[in-house]
Amino acid sequence: MFTWRTTTVVYEDSPYGARILAALFSALQGYNIRVMDSIALPVGVTDDYLDKVLYNLKETPTRVFIVHMHPDLAARVFYQATIAGMMSDGYIWIATSTIGSVVESLSADKIDHMQGVVTFRPYVQATGHIMNFTARFKSRFLLDNPGIHNVHNPSTQLLWAYDTAWALAKAVHIARMSSSTPWRMLLGAVLNTAFDGLSGRFGLVNGQLQLSTHEVINIVSKGARKVGFWMPESGILKSLETNSAKGLKQVLWPGHLAIAPKGWDVSSNRRPLRMVVPEKQGFNQFVEVTYSPATNSSTVRGYCIDIFDMVMKNLPYPVAYQYVPVSDSSRNYDNLLSLVHEKKADGMVGDTTITMRRMNVVSFTKPFTDTGLSMVVGVKKETDGGMWIFLQPLTTTLWITSLAFFCFTGFVVWVVEHRINPEFRGTPCQQFGTVFYFAFSTLVFSHKEKLESNLSRFMVIIWLFLVLILASSYTANLTSVLTVQRLQPTVTSVQDLLRNGDYVGYHNGSIVPYWLEKMGFRKEILLAYSTVEEYSDALRRGSGNGGVSAIFDEIPYLKAFLSKYCEGYTMIGPTYRLGGFAFAFPIGTPIVHDVSQAILSPAVQEEMERIEKKWFGDPGACQSKSNSIGSSSLGFSSFGGLFLVSGTVSGLVLLIQLAIFVYQEHGKLWDTSLHKWFQCLDFVVGAKDWRLPIFNGPRIRNDDSVNQPHEATTEASAMHDFTSEL
């Protein structure tokens, strides 16, 4: 409903005032509302002290104030706030039920100084009993006080007092109390008393009256108007009807504003925000400060500046600000952040990294850059692969998998074809050679054996499709390996650097050395550099010639380096998570939340990509030039789907063929004799299926035409003898 994120609590310095603080702070924290300050005012506070407190509050950016005190002290606070100009546009005042319950009894001059205050009070339904009691109360009051003509309606506290008296009377009657009855018995009877009183259902829980509904009121004109209701189980509602909408009705805030103020002010004296920026010695793409002697002025530009300008334009309200360059600040940003912490500056814009230590000093927005720490190294031409370079296009896993599938496919084809196809017959050695020759000849589509079974034909069609894709990919990748110049990084991992003891570089003035020492690098091998030119020179010379083997830095800096020195360098290795770049403000500044929301909006994200290309170029351009870096071997994952389909089809064909064989020869498989099983196995491997016409033709092979009848007679006899023994 409202987007207020900070508030200040002003309360009475008494047991009554301090009683609700713990519960109030806990409730506000549950809604992510931060209490910036809590001001205790003595009951007899002087006007001078009250003025001093209010003017100090006026200097803070928070404009939401919660007041909890008795009506007399509250009236003085609002009177002095009016004089201080704090009951005007932009301020929000919320008072507790102590004020809301007595609004009708306050004088007109006190009401005039409370215009726009929002408060609440227990809700009492205007029943017939209430109206009758109100009439009798006014009549009795005028009778006892004939000099008073303007009698207010009885307040909620008065109704509670009336119900409490009835509760005491009921307790005495129910407990049959007498002068000798112990007081603890009377107290217990009161605590257990429950009835419908004037103010609603009367009942005590832990000695406290339980209230189910409060009405929210807005003090305007000469009194208060209802703007909503609050119930513990439903929250804030516009009415008590069943399908009532959530929220409040129209509220008139201080200054007669109908639109809810944002709850904070950028600057108490309406001056522009002073945003400090660092003067950098390198990486001017992020922040660059130039001075004009003619006009004695400075100009600030860069990636971070464009991002901040664009984000501020996307805030739902205008914010005036100006950049304040700080010289000699690029080596240590902590000095700039200390200015923000001490409120000598209103914020900081630049390539400021979020760290845990800095978060204790200032408040950061959401990061507006990629987060992470990585390294950039030089690249070298890949050396000749030698006599085994033909193995490089495929990984070891893919080679082994392919070999296994060649053998499995040949085996399944033999199982299906050897009993019906003379092309797959012969001695065991001949059959073994035929299986492997057929399987591997499919690699170049030179197999000559004619398949007789539709099962094997279907399986081989699927297998040939896999072989076609695999062979084409192998040929293309081998051609690339032999013809395209490939580059390899000079260093492949952080462990290589640690093991060799090479020098490594980092961005001067950054937090990178801290992380490098955490990784295990010795301080004496860490070298600091400030510009992209120094990065390039150090990497070119190398660790053995006064340079370094790798440069560690945050990803935005590495992108800036590679945008200028794309060829010859590459970013590799794991990315270590860091906070990223963000804008800094004093702790508790409400604008931090709004700026973070603007950074995360889709429109701002698209604009940020455009700004990044403006300052660092297209990130894909350098990637396209170095896409040959790394492994070029094809892995199993690239063909996993094809192998799955081929293996599934081959397995199904094998199961179907085995099922057919068992069905045809089931009578011969029931003998459990070991000798019979060996005879059966020999029959399965070597026997032909003479029921097929292919084995009864006049000519099968040129060299078998003379021996065919004898062979048929011999096998038929063997088959007869085998079956007779079975």
From TrEMBL:
The keyword Cell membrane appears for this protein: no
Compositional bias segments (type: Polar residues): 705-716
Superkingdom: Eukaryota
Domain Ionotropic glutamate receptor C-terminal: 274-618
GO CC entries: membrane
Cited SMART domains: PBPe (SM00079)
Principal location listed in the UniProt entry: membrane
Compartment list: Membrane
Regions crossing the membrane: 397-416, 458-476, 639-663
Entry membrane topology: Multi-pass membrane protein
InterPro entries referenced in this protein's UniProt entry, alphabetically: ANF_lig-bd_rcpt, Glu/Gly-bd, Ionotropic_Glu_rcpt, Iontro_rcpt_C, Peripla_BP_I
GO molecular function: ligand-gated monoatomic ion channel activity
Region (Disordered): 703-726
Pfam families (UniProt xref): ANF_receptor (PF01094), Lig_chan (PF00060), Lig_chan-Glu_bd (PF10613)
Key words of the record: Glycoprotein, Ion channel, Ion transport, Ligand-gated ion channel, Membrane, Receptor, Transmembrane, Transmembrane helix, Transport
Protein name: Ionotropic glutamate receptor C-terminal domain-containing protein
UniProt source species: Aegilops tauschii subsp. strangulata
